[in-house]
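Problem 12. The chain below contains 294 residues. Write out its predicted structure in token notation.
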Amino acid sequence: MKKNLLTMAALLCCTIITTSAQDVDPDRNRTYNIVLNNVQYTHRDEKMSAGEAVGAVLTGVLTGQTSVEATKYESDVKGAIIKGLSGAHRFHYNDGLVQVSDVAEEGNIAVNALITNINASSSSRTWKDKEDKVHVDTYYRGEVEAVLTLKDIKTGEVIANPTVSGRGSSTSMFSTSDQAVKHAIGMLSGSITRWLNNYKPITANFVEAGAAKKDKQKEVFIDYGSREGAYKGMHMGIYQLYTIKGKPGKSMLGKLRIEEVAGEDLSRCKVTSGSKDIKAAIDDGQTLVVMSLD
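Solution.
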């Protein structure tokens, strides 16, 4: 009898785990192919408006034109764009060896880029040394801007026209304009990756509360693991779902960091902010969802 009970318990456990895994949509965090179809550069002295820039990119995307204008920083900017496209969680960048027609599945994206601005602004500081001699130090801050057009390869639908930029901060000042521009070009990559990650974020569900201390939640478990590419150190936001007049919404309660990928569909996360609100929502039985922040 005892043996039969143990066997039934094991079968029940397996059934629960299997059912839980099946509840997760297999396309939930699907990875899409993305290709860079065309890069163009509009010289600053051409005075192209933002609307004209979008129109020019749309024309290039819809007609499949491929023209590249050589400039001093063209290869650097193109490399930054490719790096940005390659860094997003849910996109796999295909290089020029892959034909657009080879990835013509709905949801896969072709990108055209129009570089609308490459410049370095300067500022000077005048000072005197001990001998009362005047010195002038000049510093530069770079800026690079581009308009991207994303088109669904299969349907031909233009999905979005984000303007992305790389800018040096007030503390990112360099002694030469070349250094400043190259720094801004490097920052362009992060801007593109962040846009794509916000467009198609990683999503997951809250599974169970972990360690807590008094009224603060220290850890939680989510149904996102190695099968979907989870990794230690990944930052996530945890949200409470609600409905107002039939319209769904969500409110961020706090932030998480994956501390351990515990299985194919399970990760243990440390609560890095909002610990009180998260614990209160868990105790109240609220529906919580998780989305990537990186």
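Discussion. The two ends are 53 Å apart (CA to CA). Students who got a different answer should revisit the alignment rule from Section 12.3.
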